[in-house]
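dumping this here before i forget
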Amino acid sequence: MRILANVRAPHADIGDVRFPRQKGIAMWFPKLPGRCNSIIVSAFLAAWTLVALSSFCFSAEPVLLGPTLDSQEKTPVDKKPAKSEPPQGFPYSPLRFDEDMWGTYLERQNEYLVKLGEVDQGPPERKIHVFADGGFFMMHTYFSRPNPAFIISGKPTAAMPSPNFEFHVDFAPVVNLTVINDEGWGVRGTWQQLDESVPINRFSSSDSTGKTTVSSVPVFGVPGFTTPGPVGKALGIVKDKVNFSDHLRFTDFDTEIIKEFRWGPWLLLTGGGVRYLYLSQSYDAFRINTGTVTKTTGSGAGKTTTTLKLIEDSDRVDSGRNFGGAGPAGILEVHYRLGRFPVWLYGNANGAVFFGREETESFERTVERLQTTVKKGTSSKISNLSTSHELEATTSTSKVLTTADFEVGVNTAIPYGRVLLLLRVGLAEQIIFDGGNATSPLGNTEFFGMRFTAGVSY
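structure:
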């Protein structure tokens, strides 16, 4: 049998093997050994074709006669109860993908790309996250009971200020450090301090008739003073001036173990630990009187002039109360994310019980310095009188204080490289129950204001 190959291409490719061909050259195929009757071969091929067509038609008949998407109903047969879990692995596929499965697939894909050299293998993912922020509170201190600076008896004069201490807004620094892992467990420490003073500047209280007097606030263990003083009234020198001040210092430090829980846009943080509190309040009152008076007796050669110079007639009262203690503390904090923006509304509530000791110290000092000059004729005599009195009183007792803190506000996190910039603004209220004031252990000490903090998360 001869076949003439007339192809356009100079050669043909089959896999990696090339067969050269030349145009117009006959290709000879030798005849296979043995004989084959063409009639028998034709009959065999026709029979095989008929069988193939019959099998195709019978297999396609149910679909061609009744095309439907519904599954065919079959006679129920006894079967073993199906397993509750679907078959796993190839060729089965899970019915749904949860977050863990997606994470596993992404990790495998990343490993595959790293092996192929398509992407660079970055640093290992951090398992611990650190949050550090600092800022300040703009706090206003006030008390549930009056916090008097002095006591007025009679009709006050126009020069006299308000008899109560009025605290103003002051700044209180705050520092927070939190370390937390991917499971939501962590440790947090917070420190804050408020140190402020309220002065009442010196003013005059010199009513020689005694109808209007100013007295220091009674404190533990000392009598205090009243203006005009007894020495000045006796000498006829009434030029008393007084001033007062109140000082408060508040230091708070706590360490807590915390746990985070997340549900969609919600984040709940709860925890407990140990909290330390130091509260110090002091009261200062000062009175001073100076002046000169001259008296003359006799006449002529027996004339005598007596000059009394009151160098100092003063009283100082200092009293301080301080509490230091520690105890268990608890926290509950809620955050809610606003949509897809990196902005959260938050609110938290803290509480603690402190076991410690309260000490009260009082001190009063009275100083009298008088110079007397007696002049008779051409001779004169000078004498000095100086006295100083001091009283002290101290007491210490065990005490239990409780605190409650509340805060609401908004915070945000701004990505910057591998860190997050944190900003927080909120309203804060803190109450120290039975904290008292500088002169009394009764009543609550309260702080209200705004919080401004900034920090980073890594």
